[in-house]
Amino acid sequence: MGRVTQRRKVHKFVLDGSAQALEHPVRYREDFLAVEEPLEVRLGHMSFSVTMRTPGDDFDLVAGFLVSEGVIWDPSQLISLRFCAGEDENGVQTFNVVEAQLRPDVVLPETGRNVYTSSSCGICGTDSIEAVRKSSHFSPAGDPLSVPAEVLASLPDRLREAQAVFEKTGGVHAAGLFRIHDDGSAELLCLREDVGRHNAVDKVVGWALREGLLPLRGTVLQVSGRASFELVQKAALAGIPVLTAVSAPSSLAVELAQESGLTLVGFSRGTSLNVYAGSDRVGVPANI
Fold it and tell me: In angstroms, what CA-CA distances link 275 with 216, 259, 268, 270?
């Protein structure tokens, strides 16, 4: 998997009380780690942000990040993406700087970013909470999508089955975009993994932008962790009508989902799920 994973030797302590464990309580083995490296985003020659991410699908990440920042919403606004020159101490190209060339009429937001954003927070660099509530060019409120509850409940397992990097490392988040067809079936359109849950979503949104698919009407975004405010915001800005997570939402995430007309699902675990906003889009199982 190239720079996505890295091998490391570890000392494994086995404490299960077995005869083998008592004889050899400490074992030496190789483990695979998810790679985390900085990515600097430049707009033209201006540094816009630095985020920690898992290398791979970096152009999708930058494109989705710009959508999430409210900078662009149409593929024609993004003229080009390219890696800038950059080498590590061994003279190897790092591919850790991406420059985006935007259409001249694209207006950058007045509120800027601080330089650094961690992999655990997608909005830590914004100047104020007020700046976080961005106006979207796409509203999920009018999307007539209806999804059977049993289909929503099946998506976490489908997401997990497709997570190649998680299978190897156990250390990344995932976001999967599903198209819901008229018969209620769900088709996986795009899956991205990253050490940052917000990065995984940005990579999906960026892929969709570059494919000319925004707004993402008739889709469900399934994420592997909790549903934070930032993930609801990213989904709303991309016009995604349903966001579902395997863990809990925050209070602010629920509030924003209600304001945006987005359906928010949490604790989706295969046999049950909680709908925190927009329950009218979730169909009651036929056998109830």
Answer: 20, 15, 9, 14
pTM exceeds 0.85, yes or no: yes
Give the chain's radius of gyration (CA, Å). Answer: 20
pLDDT 10s digits, 40-71? 999 988 899 999 999 999 999 999 999 999 89
Decide if 121 is catalytic.
yes
| 170-193 pLDDT, tens digit each | 889 999 999 999 999 999 999 999
Which among 84, 121, 124, 190 is annotated as catalytic?
121
d(CA 223, CA 248): 11
The sign one gets for the Cα dihedral 84, 235, 253, 265 is negative
Contacts of 45 (CB under 8 A, 6+ apart): 99
- What are the structural domains of the chain? 37-132 (3.10.20.10), 140-283 (3.40.140.10)
Whether the CB-CB separation of 114 and 128 falls below 8 Å is answered with no
